[in-house]
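Fold this sequence, please.
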Amino acid sequence: MKNIIENLKDGYNEINLKVNLKDLRGDALSFCISGEKFFISLFIYRDDKIVGSITANRDVERFMAVDILKSSNGFKNLEGGDYKIAYLLQKEGEVLLKIEEAKSPVDSRGEVDIEKDQVMCREEKWYAGDFHTHTFYSDGKLSQEENIEVAKKRGLSFFSPTDHNFNQTKFPDTDLLIIEGTEITSKFGHVNVFFTNKSIFEKYSVKGLNTEKWLLEVLKDLKGEIYSINHPFMDTYEFLVGEYYLEDLKFMEIINDPTYMTSIAAMEKALKAWDILLKNGYKVYGIGGSDSHLYPNEKYENSEYPSLLGDPKTFIYAKNLSKDEIKKALLAGKISVSREKLLELKKIDDSEFSMKLKENTFHGKKLHIELIVDGEIFRTYEDNLKVNLDLDENYHYVRANVRCEDKELYGFTNPYFYNLKKSQKKIKTWKELQDLLWLRQFYLTKMELYLNFQIFG
């Protein structure tokens, strides 16, 4: 076979590849991408089916072998015939793709199919996990094995490796529950899809990835699947699909890597937006994600603490530790999110609640509880909450935030709903939510300026 060396172009492009196994020297093809300051999502198709994919922002080499056990993660076995390579590239410098005959160094006999499901623990309890992590199969620094190691040190029972536009196909065998996932990554928003390894890029070409219309169509197609909108108000990575129907939204990431430089402000916006959704009667559940990219001893600029897988933790109360039961618990809203210890707002009877913090401080800062009723702070408690609410027959919801003494969000619980059918959905689209959030911020800013003028003016 004639080796291919391509100087890849910016944007969307296609390359044709013909493979004759009789002429193959070795047992595989090597796909090598090299360059500086780039991000690529590349897909290899045979008969309109994805047989290999690479997402990368650094030099990478992957193998497609005749024996699938010698193929890299994300690749099928090599067959003879015609292939199409489609890619979307953002670059500043030269980026080279080399396709060469090779002998594969891969041996995946110790790995398992990531779609495998089994009961990892039979106890009914709260399980700690992370719904947003990355490996070196996209732009993370950790290997799969290193992710597992960090997850265990952080006390997790499960996590989902959600690499950008990439579906993991195999994973090292472990006693942790690995939930298949991918982060659909476009200029108009990032969306994590869970519990399926079917790539959306088999149906939707990567060509339209960075358009609003493309992402809207994908989200319509994902109706019925379990997905979350990630870091929806983070600068540069915010969710911008204005015509997205709120009735389709079931999960939204509230806490995303709280050590990242823009996360704190983004989390507060997400929290406010979530309460707007809840007040409008949308049954949306909040989750968290570490969005881990770094080595466990690394910090982002201006951060006091390292960025760690499992910060935050998303706790799920499930009948057992299996994909099926985690999925059921998610859909039932049995979810709590925290930087460290479990937060549990217990409903004792119809309107009586209790909550006790498992730790009083975090990073040396004292914690307190905010009981939220219908989007407003009902009362603030130190470390122990017990209250009987006088709720009428109208629509209400009750949840809790836990904050540090400097007001930084430590975690939250998901809502208990009352008379949900009596709620009124006054907004329908994401654009309307954005507008309401902006108006709220505008009036708060004006009020703050007015008060400052009264005090200091």
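The domain at 4-109 is CATH 2.60.120 (Jelly Rolls). The chain has five helices and 29 strands.
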